[in-house]
Amino acid sequence: MMTKCIYCGTAAQDFDHAPPQCLFQRPLPNDLVKVPSCKKCNRRFALDDEYFRDSLALSTYDIADPPELKTLHEAVRRSLLRKNFRPPARRILAGSRTGWARRGSPIVEQVKLLPIDMKRIGKTVERVVHALHFNHTGRVLPLGYEPKVIHGGRMATVDRLDLPFFERLFAPLSQAQWQSTGGRAFGYAFAKASDDPDATVWFLSFFGRLTFLAFTVPD
Ligand SMILES: [Zn+2]
Fold first, then answer.
1. Which of 9, 33, 53, 116 lies in the 20 to 30 Å Cα band around 80?
2. Residue 31 Cα, ligand 1 centroid: separation in angstroms?
3. What is the pTM of this model?
């Protein structure tokens, strides 16, 4: 049987990694999830993944824990120093401005505000959910179940809140087992509705610093 790309359904000649492999140094951790993917989808994802990595690194530059995060900072710093190379970090820094914010204390400090495109960040997270769902269930998400990602308390793409439905998903999430890959680089927990294996809720954490809630629920 021919293996199909889980994202577009054409013949898969490649693998996609979840979380994205650009978040790690070589050699890659051997516990990353690998799913069948076509070359075209892989190429399309690569730019968003770099944007995700650079945004994560720049917005946590003053945090040194976990050590996996420090390694990521160093990789992005090196990429900024390379001549004739334009990492997304360069564009993000060029658009930054100075502002004021509270950072964990009542005192307002001067900070660098970064123009990070959360919608684009969300695209990488959607794909990670897609891959993990396939890895756990062996099922390709049906049409209409595209992952929806919520970050920072902002309801980005969920326009309908069916509370009894979400309650049914959230109660099992509180019992779900926490799973991690790549040391402390990535962790997640998920739960699915008892009557629909494609209706799922996810809590995802990148380096313990960037967290998302995501759903796959029918439109
Ligand atoms: Zn594809």
1. 33
2. 23
3. 0.87
